[in-house]
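Ticket #4471: structure export looks truncated?
Reporter: QA, pipeline team
Priority: medium

Steps to reproduce: submit the single chain below to the structure queue and open the exported record.
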Amino acid sequence: MLIKEFRIVLPMTVDEYQVAQLYSVAHASKNETGGGEGIEVLKNEPFSATEGVQPKYPLCNGRYTEGQYTLKIYHLASKVPNYLRWLAPKGSLEVREEAWNAFPYCRTIVTNPEYMKDNFFIKIESIHLPDRGDTQNAHGLDKETLSKREVIKIDIANDAVDPADRKPDINPSMYKSVKTGRGPLAGYSWDKTCQPVMCCYKLVTVEFKWWGLQSKVEKFIQKGERRIFTNFHREVFCWTDEWFGLTMADIRALEDKTKKELDQQLHTGEVKGTKKCADDD
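Actual output as written to the record:
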């Protein structure tokens, strides 16, 4: 089991990020879906413990009791290393994602119930705070878990990006928002001075029980999560002028429209989106 905490500082408020994240998830999903692969949204509905609809797991020790629940299936065949495609039977390269978004806290559980069953899971716990990534135990971990946790800071402006992920219009070190005046994120100390500011604390726990492959696959998944977080939050910032000013009602309408578009895209056209890194195999 590998446990890593990724910290991503962003030049926006926590309330702005709630809209920015949901907008960017909907936008990015369309870019990842096509040709039989991508994202299939099965459920997107409110949950509330006070109304008897309990989340599958206690959210942050029971501190959060209501929010939005989503259930998605990810069809990933061409996006995994060759050695897994050789070993795994047809149809097993699909994963189930359940998320309980009780913003500013969110818990996401990724599993493969058809094939790996209890031998594989990814748990992503996110807390969003109005600071610069200096809260040492944002998730309230016990001493044993803290001893296993590795902290990794992601700099969306300066961290290296895989050549396959580079997009000319997604460059935080060059982008300047017309609506807010924020950016570009120049130099290596922008996160120490930007205003407004917030940080995403993403605690990722990975377990893959497969003799001879456990360590290699767990490291591959954690590497992939870092890549996803880096690319996604670069887009979140560089799409500021697209999401700034939207309301949550706008977001829910966008999600409904996106689900319909994903259903159409999934089985048509060519495979789209994130490609494997050159060294993934």
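Status: closed, not a bug. The export was complete when the record was re-opened. Leaving a note from the reviewer for reference: The chain has a mean pLDDT of 86.
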